[in-house]
Amino acid sequence: MSIQCEEPFNDEMKAMMQEMFGEPEVKDNKTALYNDLLELQQQKMKELANVAGQPVTAEFNSIGEIKELSDGTKYEVTNKGWKKI
């Protein structure tokens, strides 16, 4: 799963994401990539967007999908989780 915003995560959002999802496999200031998350709660995501002060995009990513972080590093979903490519 991936969580993204257009603007950098603020400290309150980072703390809330840590509480909700635990430590991401990989993160930068606008994207967090998680392994092993099975569900999202709509109310919690709404609260996260309110804390962020911006829209928050959550995606369940399929094997083979690629995400690029702000530094240009790319990660691909494998059957074992996110892998740097």
What's the pLDDT, averaged over the residues? 94
- The total tally of domains equals 1
* N-end to C-end Cα span: 17 Å
Strand percent estimate: 25-35%
The shape, in one word, is: globular
> How are strands sequenced across the largest beta sheet?
2-3-1-4
Oligomeric state, counting identical vs distinct chains: single chain
Determine the structural class based on helices, strands and strand pairing: alpha+beta
Radius of gyration: 12 Å
| Strand element count | 7
Overview of this protein structure:
- The protein is an alpha+beta fold and 85 residues long.
- The protein has one domain.
- The protein is 26% helix and 27% strand.
- It is built from 2 helices and 7 strands, in the order βαββαββββ.
- The chain has helices at residues 11-21, 42-52; strands at residues 2-4, 26-27, 31-33, 57-59, 66-68, 74-78, 81-84.
- Strands 2-3-1-4 form a 4-stranded antiparallel β-sheet, with no helix packed on it.
- Strand 6 (74-78) and strand 7 form a beta hairpin.
- Helix 1 (11-21) runs antiparallel to helix 2 (42-52).
- The radius of gyration is 12 Å and the shape is globular.
- The model has no long low-confidence stretch (mean pLDDT 94).
